[in-house]
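[Automated response] Your request has been received and processed.

Submitted sequence:
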Amino acid sequence: QVQLVESGGGLVQAGGSLRLSCAASGRTFSSRAMGWFRQAPGKEREFVAAINWSGGSTYYADSVKGRFTISRDNAKNTVYLQMNSLKPEDTAVYYCAATGWVTRPSDYGTQSLYDYWGQGTQVTVSS
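Generated structure:
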């Protein structure tokens, strides 16, 4: 069992930065790939970024590439999402998720492969 708790969301002006954290409980964190997803009002939840178990491979949605950075600290059971150059269209509830089922790079953005989810943290970017 893995429990995930996100933090770090808030209100920021366009062009600003935020760092989200996702603290995980459970002994299997370091063996799991982790992902960040987001859901804007009236839209479906979408993939943002993911990282493999060791932190050696990262994956990003085209919309955030070059602006967001995902990282992890397995000693602290925590995954991070550094968000820079934020835009109003980044406004959403951000969720972290854990999976033990991804094997191919194309799998990392597939929500159905993630079996543990946090409650989400709101990010609002004003123009």
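Summary generated for your ticket: Residues 4 and 24 are 5 Å apart (CA to CA). The radius of gyration is 13 Å.
If you did not submit this request, please reply to this message.
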